[in-house]
């Protein structure tokens, strides 16, 4: 029996409805999983970055408020870190003239990476001590940021404090009725980069640490300064009275080369340290052996 053209079209159309194969389904699921994983990583990175920025902005804002309160009350205020993730602020929060202390925490995953723990005291003029304090922070993803408080009380975020530019002094004569005692001379340029950690004067003296069995490990120098973003390289010499392996560790903004190396009894080895980015401050670098760990303070400057 001969089929009509309409019947043949229906049969052909029905034969093309074969659906997806198992391989096609697996490929589609794999692609969805890959795209989803990238999206999750991106969202997680964004959240950790926002946490870092939120923490640093909150700290900077409280520092500014503390400074203004000290000037307003003609008294003192302070911001003190009690751990790498918590700090106390003592100031007049209510405007009633009575200072109180409130505790604050950095956002989840954000920690202070500079050492020692900062302690900022503003005097009645809104100034601090004659040095610059740096608060460097890092989130769980390894991103870093920092807050500077200069000796004049200025608070900056992710900015460099520099030596003020050299100013040419003009000659003042007495022909205009100005007495000689009114002439100001001098050429001193204020250094805004001097930190409060005591390492700004150069390398510190050697320091040693002891452990079980009479083990002694020494590092020289105990503190040093390097320029940010690979500007200069620092060298640390580690000595030990026993054979073993010395392992170096530090924050992500510092590259320590090599990461570890063998040392013989009575011998010494050298480690190189450079800065990998623009994060400034003073950071702890640890050199550990099987029996003890010795810490070096590395200051990263402009």
Write structural notes for this entry:
The protein has 2 helices and 18 strands. The chain is α+β, with helices and mostly antiparallel strands and 302 residues long. The protein has 2 domains: 40-157, minor pseudopilin epsh domain (minor pseudopilin epsh fold); 207-301, Immunoglobulin-like (Sandwich). The strands form 4 sheets. It has a 5-stranded antiparallel β-sheet with strand order 9-10-12-16-14, with no helix packed on it. A hairpin with a 5-residue loop joins strand 6 (133-138) and strand 7. 26% of the residues are buried. The mean pLDDT is 83.
Summarize the model shown.
With 302 residues, the protein is of the alpha+beta class. The chain is built from two helices and 18 strands. The chain folds into two domains: 40-157, minor pseudopilin epsh fold, CATH 3.55.40.10; 207-301, Sandwich (Immunoglobulin-like).
Q: Which keywords apply here?
A:
302 residues, alpha+beta, minor pseudopilin epsh fold, Immunoglobulin-like, 2 domains, 5-stranded antiparallel sheet, 5-stranded mixed sheet, 2 helices, 32% strand, flat
């Amino acid at each position: 029996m001969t089929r009509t053209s309409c019947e043949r079209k229906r049969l052909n159309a029905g034969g093309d409805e074969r659906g997806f194969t198992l391989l096609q389904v697996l490929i589609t699921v794999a692609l969805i999983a890959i795209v989803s994983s990238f999206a999750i990583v991106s969202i997680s990175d964004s959240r950790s970055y926002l946490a870092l920025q939120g923490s640093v902005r909150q700290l900077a804002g409280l520092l500014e408020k503390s400074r203004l309160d000290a000037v307003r009350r003609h008294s003192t205020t302070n911001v003190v870190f009690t751990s790498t993730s918590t700090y106390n602020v003592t100031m007049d929060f209510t405007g009633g003239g009575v200072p109180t202390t409130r505790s604050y925490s950095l956002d989840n995953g954000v920690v202070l990476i500079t050492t020692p723990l900062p302690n900022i005291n503003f005097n009645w003029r809104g100034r601090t001590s004659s040095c610059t304090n740096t608060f460097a922070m890092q989130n769980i993803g390894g991103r870093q940021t920092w807050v500077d408080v200069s000796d004049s009380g200025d608070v900056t975020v992710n900015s460099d404090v520099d030596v003020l530019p050299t100013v040419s002094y003009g000659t003042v004569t007495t022909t205009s009725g100005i007495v000689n005692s009114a002439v100001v001379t001098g050429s001193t340029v204020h250094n805004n980069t001097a930190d409060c950690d005591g390492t700004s004067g150069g390398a510190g003296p050697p320091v040693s640490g002891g452990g079980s069995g009479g083990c002694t490990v020494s590092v020289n120098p105990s503190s040093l300064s390097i320029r940010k973003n690979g500007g200069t390289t620092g060298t640390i010499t580690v000595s030990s009275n026993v054979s073993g392996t010395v392992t170096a560790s530090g924050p992500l903004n510092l590259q320590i080369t090599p990461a570890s190396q063998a040392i013989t009894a009575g011998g010494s080895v050298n480690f190189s340290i450079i800065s990998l980015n623009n994060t400034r401050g003073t950071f702890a670098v640890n050199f550990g052996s099987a029996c003890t760990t010795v810490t070096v303070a590395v200051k990263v400057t402009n």
